[in-house]
């Protein structure tokens, strides 16, 4: 019998965009409830028009998320802006999922860090390269870790905010039903924003979830989970959905072996 049989795992991601996680756990007979706690919307082009017109002034472009890649290229497409200036730029991404999304638009990353977070990106990129002018593609809630690293080494950069992160109020009812039923064995979060949205959506129900294992896609998400007082947080070795799935499997495998 599988050690994950009948375990009910919550994932803070749209089911259609979480196959890397769900498929692995379904193979182990776990039950997955996936709800997108946050949603995204495009920013107004007016806010970024000047930077789009100055793409040739940059030598590097940094994508801090897969969403940033998608919304950046959608801006270009929707407003019939040429991609030709991009062919002269080097491109950097924070992780493999961002790299894969970039490849879907016909470009390859020239740099990807050894670990997929802003801290490793900042250190490794600034140690290896000395760019003249960097364009960073972001969402409105992006952290300033890379900005601060560039400031320390005197790297000139500009930020382009191409999307906004919003709480997804549409899933509040099914989410609160899951919390009220108290059937979830573990909570899995894919960003600090998803944790903030989670507690905003469940209102006063927070105390009932804090004792369950909380799996976080990276250390920044774990910090946010601890701020909300989750008692038992776990982080995968690789900061991806697949890495999260393997961490959940490892946790329950070890738990069963201790009980034998």
TrEMBL record:
Top-level taxon of the source organism: Bacteria
Single GO MF descriptor: uroporphyrinogen-III synthase activity
Catalysed transformations (reactions): hydroxymethylbilane = uroporphyrinogen III + H2O
Alphabetical UniProt keywords: Lyase, Porphyrin biosynthesis
Involved pathway(s): Porphyrin-containing compound metabolism; protoporphyrin-IX biosynthesis; coproporphyrinogen-III from 5-aminolevulinate: step 3/4
GO biological process, one term: uroporphyrinogen III biosynthetic process
Record InterPro entries: 4pyrrol_syn_uPrphyn_synt_sf, 4pyrrol_synth_uPrphyn_synth, UROS/Hem4
Similarity annotation: Belongs to the uroporphyrinogen-III synthase family.
Name of the protein described by the UniProt record: Uroporphyrinogen-III synthase
């Amino acid at each position: 019998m599988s050690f994950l049989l009948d375990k009910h795992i919550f994932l803070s991601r749209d089911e259609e965009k979480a196959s890397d996680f769900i498929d692995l756990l379904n193979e182990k007979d776990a039950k997955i409830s996936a709800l997108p706690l946050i949603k995204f919307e495009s920013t107004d082009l007016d806010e970024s028009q000047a930077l789009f017109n100055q793409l040739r002034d940059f030598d590097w472009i940094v994508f801090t998320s897969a969403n940033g890649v998608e919304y950046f290229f959608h801006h270009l497409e929707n407003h019939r802006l040429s991609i030709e200036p991009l062919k002269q730029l080097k491109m950097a991404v924070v992780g493999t999922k961002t790299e894969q999304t970039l490849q879907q638009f016909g470009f390859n990353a020239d740099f990807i860090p050894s670990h997929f977070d802003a801290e490793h990106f900042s250190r490794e990129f600034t140690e290896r390269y000395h760019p003249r002018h960097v364009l960073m593609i972001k969402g409105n809630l992006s952290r300033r870790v890379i900005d601060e690293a560039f400031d320390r080494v005197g790297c000139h950069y500009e930020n382009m905010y191409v999307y906004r992160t919003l709480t997804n109020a549409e899933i509040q009812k099914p989410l609160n039903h899951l919390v009220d039923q108290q059937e979830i064995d573990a909570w899995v979060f894919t960003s600090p924003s998803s944790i903030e949205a989670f507690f905003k959506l469940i209102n006063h129900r927070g105390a009932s979830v804090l004792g369950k294992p909380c799996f976080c896609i990276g250390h920044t998400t774990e910090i946010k989970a601890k701020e909300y007082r989750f008692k038992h947080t776990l982080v995968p070795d690789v900061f991806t959905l697949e890495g999260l799935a393997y961490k959940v499997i490892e946790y329950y495998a070890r738990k069963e072996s201790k009980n034998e």
